[in-house]
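Example (one chain per record):
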Amino acid sequence: MAMFAWKRAFCRQNGLQMNTFSKPSPFDFDEKILLQGAEISRRLDQLRREKPPQIGKKMLRMFSMAEVAHYLGVSPNNLKRLHLEGKGPVPRISAAGRRSYNAEQIQELRFYLDKTGKSDAKKYVPHRKGTDTLQVVAIVNVNAGSGKTTTAAHLAQHLALTGHRVLTVDLDPQATLSALYGLQPGFNKNPSIFDSWPIGEGLASIEDVILPTNFPGLDIIPANLQLLKYQFSMPSTVHDAVEGQRFFSHFAKALAIVDHRYDVVVIDCPPDAGYLTLTALIAATSILITARPHMLDLISMGQSMVMLGNIAGAIKQFRVNAEVDWLRYLITCYDPADVTQAQMVGFMRSVLTEEILTHPMVRSRAVFDANLTKQTLYELERSSLTRGTDERAIECMEAVNSEIQDLIHRAWGRM
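Predicted structure:
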């Protein structure tokens, strides 16, 4: 009672209305969250209009000569010599005499070197050749926050910068990867892979739902909430083995249409073991499982992988192909200074042996800061990075992506 007397005195002194406690009235949560979700989207769209990061308008920074040399696999002196001899694209030269190139010029340099140099093994232009099959990398984890989208975005951009023709597919209805490329669900009216499947909203071709990104050589199929419908289509669609085979083969058949356009497809799967994830795994030629080195994450991941494996085994009755060239685990969000995490990594390596990638993805503030502005480490201006910490994050990212790139090339018999 003393508390209420104090509150009444305070309200009277400040001219405030005292609210009395009462039992809240029940309400339909669906209406409330629909309104709140719409308001969040509206406010975000307002911010987007003030500084639009739309596909095709999202700019990409210049790359230093050292970076360009790294992605091309040549020395900086070689690039400098080409410029001094008037060969290849003309770089931008700063007041301090530093040379830099844009992403389109990196491609131009790549094809120039491939044409004028000794490139029997396609050293500079690593496109598929002969019987090389389209490499489809499905990035999977049933837990949210495991770094799937970050991994997918950086891997796809790395492959594009190193000369591969890449298609990245956002299969997560939350569309985080799409948003990273400036596609805000709800206002851009994004298409999705669902639109090209027979059970989708229309009969569009997969070619109609592919959009360019700000990286030359990298396209995206964005996501939208329509993908949720696929998760609930199985019971009503599949009545026998023939229908089941059609259902789970939609993705693979769609990719076959654009097989000639790409070298690698990178799929960002949703954080669950649903039908979208299974469809991606059936279309995949390789699987990358992200794993945080925390006990609860590993317990959850282990149980989920058993469940996913059992489901995948059960759908073999539909005569679908589930063979892959490789399966690897990537340690993400790793803090090497954390003793407990280091112990968990040691445990994971003892269990997974050669199927765990050599290089982990370290936890980095730079990645978080980049995401705040819908960017990746490859997009950030180098002048905005902290020397030492952020540079090590980029080196780590490059090491991981190069290791995955080697696995892709090995599947083509190049290593």
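Caption: The longest strand covers residues 135-140.
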